[in-house]
Amino acid sequence: LFGTPTPADGILSVGDVLSLRFSEPIAGNLLDEDVNFEVIGTDDVLSLTTSLHFTGESSCYARTKVTRNMNARPFTIEAMIKPTGNAALQTIFALDNEKEPLWFAWAGDHLEAQIGKVRLQSATVEPILDFTRVALTYNPEDSIARFFVGTQEVNYKIKNDEDNENNAKPSYHSAGQLIWGNNATYDAPFQGD
Fold first, then answer.
1. Distance (Å, whole) CA 135 – CA 154
2. Fewest CB atoms within 10 A around its CB: which of 53, 75, 120, 151?
3. What 3 state SS string does 123-152 have?
4. Are 36 and 64 in contact (CB under 8 A)?
5. What is the rounded CA–CA span in Å between residue 69 and residue 26?
6. Where are any strands of DSSP class E within 12-51?
7. pLDDT value, residue 136
């Protein structure tokens, strides 16, 4: 979603409220509950500018208060990222559900994701040195996932993993809280904006 933040400069003081006015329609039934999210951290761990800045520490992430049902629903996870860390895996987004993982991550020179029991790894991409759009889309009707960097689609392969069948197709049937900057399944914090 695109929108206009208030305050417009993104500078917050104690007691200020951050809000977004969306400039495009929101899919039906997605704003029928409390949609606030909680920013976890302290002033020296997480900073709010025009973007969320994650320090790469496990305690530095953002999480919604409510649970979202992703059971057999199409979705797009999209973010503008500027990673600064060198960790092997840095989670951009995750659904808080340890039984059926759903996450999307930057891995230094490629993207990775896990949708249910299937782990995906993109082809190698150019280094990300400035804010760059990355996205993961998923269509449950044909079990097809797609990675994007900028406007370019990036090929992927099923990553050989003891939990995966070699030619498995992604499938997702669960719900959980939305998390930005870390992963519910295992610790893989994001470092950067």
1. 10
2. 151
3. CCCCCCCCCEEEEEEEECCCCEEEEEECCE
4. yes
5. 16
6. 19-22, 37-40, 47-48
7. 92
Q: How far apart are the first and last CA of the chain?
A: 17
Q: Which residue positions in the chain have pLDDT lower than 70?
A: 1-5, 7-15, 17-50, 87, 160-168
Query: d(Cα 99, Cα 39) in Å, to the nearest integer?
Result: 24
Q: What is the pLDDT of residue 42?
A: 45
Six token digits for residue 36:
């606030």
Record the tokens describing residue 153, joined without a space: 């689609």
| pTM (two decimals) | 0.70
Tokens 């904006």 belong to residue = 193
The per-residue DSSP string of 43-98 comes to TTT-EESSSEEEES-TT-EEEEEEEEE-TT--EEEEEEE-B----S-EEEEEEE-S
Amino acid at 95: L
CB environment 98-134: b (16+ within 10 A), e (fewer): eebbbbbbbbeebbbbbbbebbbbbeebeebeeebeb
Q: What is the pLDDT of residue 168?
A: 62
Q: How many helices (H) and strands (E) are present in the chain, helices listed first?
A: 0, 17
**Paired tokens of 100:** 């059926």
Token code pair at residue 9: 């400069």
Specify the residue for token string 């040195």: 129
